[in-house]
């Protein structure tokens, strides 16, 4: 089964990105045949910024994204959203890939399920 997670919200301030990544990680852990793609757009592109430091005991979305990659998931970043926020590819975590709306469109059509957070 192919699953696409589209995350729109900022990585901190509410828990939508956190919960979306929790679910993506759980799917990868429990469903070995699942193919998971996480597409970060709008303020969610900030979730893939490298070098995040959070207080002890607080979740860290960069680490959560690394778990998705370790489970053979894909992390795609909206290039237009990156540009609007002044983010460069060099600032983003290893394994996250700059993407386009065309790639999101193709991934959406190919997905068995699309979840939006």
Automatic annotation (TrEMBL):
It comes from Paracoccus versutus. SUPFAM superfamilies: DsrEFH-like (SSF75169). InterPro entries: DsrEFH-like (IPR027396), Sulphur_relay_DsrE/F-like (IPR003787). One of its GO terms (cellular component) is cytosol. Gene3D superfamilies: DsrEFH-like (3.40.1260.10). Pfam families: DsrE. This is Uncharacterized protein involved in oxidation of intracellular sulfur.
């Amino acid at each position: 089964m192919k699953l696409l997670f589209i995350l729109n919200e900022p990585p901190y301030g509410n828990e939508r990105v956190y919960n979306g990544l929790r679910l993506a990680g759980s799917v990868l852990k429990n469903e070995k045949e699942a193919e998971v793609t996480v597409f970060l757009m709008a303020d969610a592109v900030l979730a893939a910024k490298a070098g995040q430091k959070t207080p002890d005991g607080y979740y860290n979305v960069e680490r959560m994204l690394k778990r998705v990659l370790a489970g053979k998931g894909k992390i795609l970043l909206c290039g237009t959203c990156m540009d609007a926020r002044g983010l460069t590819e060099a600032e983003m975590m290893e394994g996250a890939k700059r993407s386009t709306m065309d790639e999101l469109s193709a991934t959406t059509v190919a997905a068995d399920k699309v979840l939006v957070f």
